[in-house]
Amino acid sequence: MTEMRRFIERMPKAELHVHVEGTLEPELKFDLARRNGIELPYRSVDEMRAAYDFDDLPSFLKMYYEGMGVLETEQDFRDLTTAYLTRAHAQNVIYAEIFFDPQAHTVRGIAYDTVIRGIRAAQEDAEEKLGIRSQLIMCFLRDMSAESAMATLEQSLPYRDWIVGVGLDSDEKGNPPVKFREVFARARDEGFGLTMHCDVDQENSTTHIRQTIRDIGVDRIDHGVNALEDKALCDEIVQRGLALTVCPISNRCITGSLKALEVRRMLEMGMRATVNSDDPAYFLGYINENLVATQEAAGLTREQVVRLAVNAFEASWLPQDEKQALRGRLERYVVSQAIA
Q1: What phi and psi, each to the nearest 5 degrees, are found at residue 333?
Q2: Residue 162 near residue 118, CB atoms below 8 Å
Q3: Model confidence over 117-148: pLDDT tens digits?
């Protein structure tokens, strides 16, 4: 193991872009299928993994939504979230903001209450037993209607204290941010943080990024790599202090490129880039693998790697005192490594 890899793996980290449904590993998927009497179209874990051959966003989403069909009970969602938080803790993630997609479950007849209570129980367990802090971001599915998103927002209000923000994910083609303008305006009024996916190399990418900033008024942008195609847009992102949650290994699976050099360019331009895992069970890389791959491909210095970690803590939706406490853990680690 190289010194840099060791430094990255032991470094305290925050993760701001991970879909809990995208952490459903094949082994757990088989366990849940057996528990719920569901027949899977695969004979083994290896056969299932072999089917994870994505070359664009729609091909990934087809497998992603098919996979979550094994999630039926509160215990299923608890087990799923526990598995992610346990693995994240092992990779020295000390804070995570976790996306979940309630519409993908309610359309299957699973109650909203079932989904969120299972996830919440796992969060509480992990904070108590492992010391990993986490918060939830509720994503709307952009290939469903704005009316469905608004209804989901209203469903979330009794659980307002359990959800820190809202996001927008799924198939971007033909589903621009402005489609959900009223939904996000209502979410802002309710006090939620706002973020939206602007997926990599999609149709009208820069237009959609501009809409998230000017028409929606997001606090963060998920992915957002294509902003680099427009210098004025980059300048605006820097001026507004917006963070971008980049997911290199998922970029490689969807576009053929990690976009690692783009991450380095963002840092050099003063953009608040962060590195995250997205859907690690499908893209075969959690946060450490993403950081290591990015560092190696882009030749990032230790200072740049630390900047990525600092950006994540600073861009988190935590109270300022908690941000400072977590960042302090990172700073003490960096000092200890310099002494060593």
Answers
A1: -65, -45
A2: no
A3: 999 999 999 999 999 999 999 999 999 999 99
